[in-house]
Amino acid sequence: FLKDFVNDYLVNRTIEYFINMANSLEILAHRTAESLELITAEMVAIRIVAMHNRFALDYFLSAYRGTCAVIGAEYCTYSSDKSNLIQKIRTEAIQSWV
């Protein structure tokens, strides 16, 4: 009798442990997705500010053929916008959890 009781207790504790672990993992996944969304929004805002600054510099340095002509073309880089791709990956991940 005691052996059966201990076995049942251990099985129930193991099941509870896995349920708690699954719940914790789901919370972590949702918080990660939320963080990714916030970081992406911040990166988009920073990219916009950088482009505005670049346009202003180009305007002021237009007499010298623009910013890249003054500081050198090797320092003028294009910053690609991956926010749509990140948003798509996040959406697909959330849909797969449901």
UniProtKB/TrEMBL annotation:
InterPro entries on file: TLV/ENV_coat_polyprotein
Keywords on record: Disulfide bond
Entry keyword Disulfide bond: yes
Database matches in Gene3D superfamilies: 1.10.287.210
Protein known as: Uncharacterized protein
Protein species of origin: Oncorhynchus tshawytscha
Taxonomic lineage of the native organism: Eukaryota, Metazoa, Chordata, Craniata, Vertebrata
